[in-house]
Amino acid sequence: MITVFRDAWIVTQNDRREILRGDLAIDGERILSVGGRYGDAADEEIDCSGDILIPGLINTHTHVAMSVMKGVVDDLEFPDFLDKVFRIDADRTDADLALGTKIGCMEMMRSATTTFVDLYYSEDVIARAAQEAGLRGICCWCCLDEDKTTQKGNPVRNCKEFHRRFKGERKVVPGVGLQGVYVCNEETCVQAKEFSDEAGAPLTFHLSETVGEVNAHKKRYGLRPAEWLSHIGVLGPRDIAAHSSWVTMNEVRLMAEAGMSVSSCPVSNMKLATGGVCPVPEYEKAGVNVSLGTDGNTTNNTLDMIAEMKVLGLLQKHSRWDPTVALAQDLLDIVTRNGAKAVGMEGLLGSLEPGKYADVVVIDGGMPNVRPLVRENIVANLAYSLSQADVKTVMCQGDVVLRDREHTTLDPEEILPQAEDAWRSLCLR
Ligand SMILES: [Zn+2]
Q1: Distance from the CA of 104 to the center of ligand 1, in angstroms?
Q2: Cα–Cα distance measured from residue 294 to residue 309, given in angstroms and rounded to the nearest whole number
């Protein structure tokens, strides 16, 4: 099956960051050709004259199933926030998780995201719902100490069992998660890391989100969280550390030596007023791969990577009194190429190049907020002027999941009316 996107601006995000004008052809689930005129017969043609094609964005930190819990834990101190979330979480059913995942996936595809890294329990339910939505889930089963979880059984064993069942499933990458050093002792962390090594699976965890968490860890172990994780051998090239805001330069160096990635979550940090700003320029200079996450819908309260990208740039510039950091091209790299590297799929995702998976987003070039539109300002328009309202059509691994702003995989009329009942039953007790 050959699909051709005709006559678009193509923001390739290849090594030379070429912006081309022409056709993008897809064969099945992979990109066949980029730029120029595709002259051979096509099964489907999508007219994109004046529109912009970008690679699907990669959200490297979220808890997608929490999308059914919007607006229930806002404006609270961090410990009160956690208490309330954990209380609601304990009552959730598989149906709530599947519903939350579908709502979150619909929101993500409408805001140009085709791949997300999820950290939660019951990833089997989340993976199935994401498959139904047609998005790619890097589904990281959350491990924590057995005496601190509401999961049935041992979390590390549950994670391994999930991996066994979902390995090789289309658009699902089963991964390993750790909630964070505040509920994961050395044994849990090391077991998770060993399994990530054995399975070649991504390992993701919350790291140094709040200063309180850092101070408590230092008091208990004599080391800051990233120092301690390095000391016990948990840092490595498959790791994605979310937040990573309260770190020292020594920790930045250790994380760079490990070859790992961070997922900055600026909106979540600002909304919870956690104070620390992820030191993006220092990470990049040291060689840590910086990617971006929205975090969950209880802390953000959207999964909109377009908005998040702009906020990342604004926060970096504003907090450092320096408009020359976090440039438009850096921001676009962070949500595409760097995200692909973070999930270990840089050979398959993150740019529009022949042979890569066809994760393609069509941005409506007819919208006034992206005009004027010339080759010279496309990247700036994408970083600073774009809105999710501009997302027209989305393809993930060759499947069209949104066509002319209409969902093709999920039925909003069936799914969305269930949202309010689920919210009331979970959040109003
Ligand atoms: Zn999180």
Answers
A1: 15
A2: 9
What pLDDT is stored for residue 152 in this prediction? 86
Closest Cα to residue 121, out of 99, 97, 102, 145? 97
Q: What is the total residue count of the chain? A: 429
Q: How close is the Cα of 224 to the center of ligand 1, in Å?
A: 19
Neighbours of ion ligand 1 (CB under 5 A): 295
Look up residue 263 and give its two tokens: 């997922």
Q: Tell me if 208 sits within 8 A of 244, measured CB to CB.
A: yes
Tokens of 136: 């790619």
Q: What's the average pLDDT block by block, 10 residues per block, for the chain (429 residues)?
A: 98 98 98 96 96 98 96 88 85 94 98 98 97 98 92 93 98 98 97 98 98 97 98 98 98 98 98 95 98 96 98 98 98 98 98 98 98 98 98 98 98 97 88
Of 180, 176, 44, 200, the residue nearest 123 (C-alpha)? 176
CB 349 within 8 Å of CB 340: yes
**pLDDT, position 77:** 87
Distance 62 CA to ligand 1 centre (A): 6
* 47-82: b (≥16 Cβ within 10 Å) or e: ebeebbbbbbbbbbbbbbbbbbbbebbeeeeeeebe
